[in-house]
Amino acid sequence: MKATQVPEISGAFLFEPTPYADERGFFCRTFDADVVRSVGLDPNAFVQDSVSRSARGVLRGLHLRSGAGEAKLVRCSYGRIFDAVVDLRPDSPTYLGRAFFELSDETQATLYIPAGCAHGFQALTETADTSYRIDRPHDPAEDVTIAFDDPELAVPWPLPATSMSQRDREAPSLAEVLKQQER
């Protein structure tokens, strides 16, 4: 497994496993505590695993958490997704930096997203299962959502959004979220 720092987002990493394929299919390690530790992350910090299933065109995000934030590992375990990360940490050297990835079941790559970054994704295949490993128990009172189509962020979503939650559809702009966080 190889870990690569994401230049657009300080502290973000892409973990790329080495799948072993044969006539039966493939096998690969999707999490390796030693590799995670080698880039300065605590592999024991993750306390919750979750999975979502989305149909083609479904858009989820842009989400982040207030307070201490939430670091997470994200992987597309089945299908393909377009994944977007925006650095919203004011003290970060990559503040407002954006990074985009295609995560898929073929590569099984995992993206580490530091706390304080907004995250969203769109399913590119008829079915896409996305797995999350999160470093804090979820508290809905800390949920923050930013408009997926905010022109300041200009995320290049590859497909028209076929479905999204009401919360995502009605999300405020980045400017509104930042103004609320100043209070």
From TrEMBL:
Catalytic residues as annotated in Swiss-Prot or TrEMBL = H63 (proton acceptor), Y132 (proton donor)
Looking at the record's lineage, which domain of life comes first? Bacteria
Gene Ontology biological process: dTDP-rhamnose biosynthetic process; polysaccharide biosynthetic process
Query: Which GO molecular function annotations are given, in alphabetical order?
Result: dTDP-4-dehydrorhamnose 3,5-epimerase activity
Q: Which UniProt keywords apply?
A: Isomerase
Q: Spell out the InterPro entries in the cross-references.
A: RmlC-like, RmlC-like_jellyroll, RmlC_Cupin_sf
Annotated spans, Disordered: 158-183
Classification via PANTHER family: DTDP-6-DEOXY-D-GLUCOSE-3,5 EPIMERASE (PTHR21047), THYMIDINE DIPHOSPHO-4-KETO-RHAMNOSE 3,5-EPIMERASE (PTHR21047:SF2)
The molecule here is called dTDP-4-dehydrorhamnose 3,5-epimerase
Species per Swiss-Prot/TrEMBL record: Streptomyces regalis
Lineage, broadest ranks = Bacteria, Bacillati, Actinomycetota, Actinomycetes, Kitasatosporales
